[in-house]
Amino acid sequence: MLYPPHQPLQAAAIPPQRGPAGPAREDESGPWHTEAVCRRDEAGLFFAPSKEPTAARLSREEAAKRVCARCPVVIECREHALLQPEPYGVWGGLTAAERRVVLARRRRREMELKKAASAPRIAAAG
């Protein structure tokens, strides 16, 4: 299981293992989430408390996105959240609702490409 970068360092001290999305990225610096800026921030910034008022949620999500904006592994984090898919929290600068939109667009694009690939080709007149 990949450990979310939002966990405090002591909670994520167990080495990452193979997760549902595949093996953790290992390179000279270790798995991607070890470089995540959010590891130094409070996890509550990235995940909603129960019955959070809308204004508070929007403010918290914007603060979390500002953290993501300065993160060197924001793309890896976003792809992790899209591949899992992570149903809650801000991951890779996107909220759960924003990730659902991205996934829907990807599915629609894939369907359009498959449909275009399987459509009969009409020879150009000339």
Short description:
Helices cover 39% and strands 0% of the residues. It is mainly α and 126 residues long.
Explain this structure to me?
The chain has helices at residues 54-69, 74-83, 96-118. The protein is mainly α. Helix content is 39%, strand content 0%. The longest helix has 23 residues, at 96-118. The chain starts with 53 loop residues before the first helix and ends in an 8-residue tail after the last helix. The protein has a domain at 42-117.
Q: Which key terms come to mind for this protein?
A:
elongated; transcription; mainly alpha; 126 residues
Break the fold down into its secondary structure elements and pairings.
Layout: H1 54-69, H2 74-83, H3 96-118
Distance between the termini: 58 Å
Biggest beta sheet summary = none
Poorly predicted sequence stretches spanning 5 or more consecutive residues: 7-28
Helix/strand order, N-terminal first: HHH
Number of strands: 0
Helical element count?
3
Provide the gyration radius in Å.
19 Å
- Give helix % range: 25-40%
Mean pLDDT equals 78
Structural class call reads: mainly alpha
Percent range for β-strand residues = under 5%
Shape descriptor? elongated
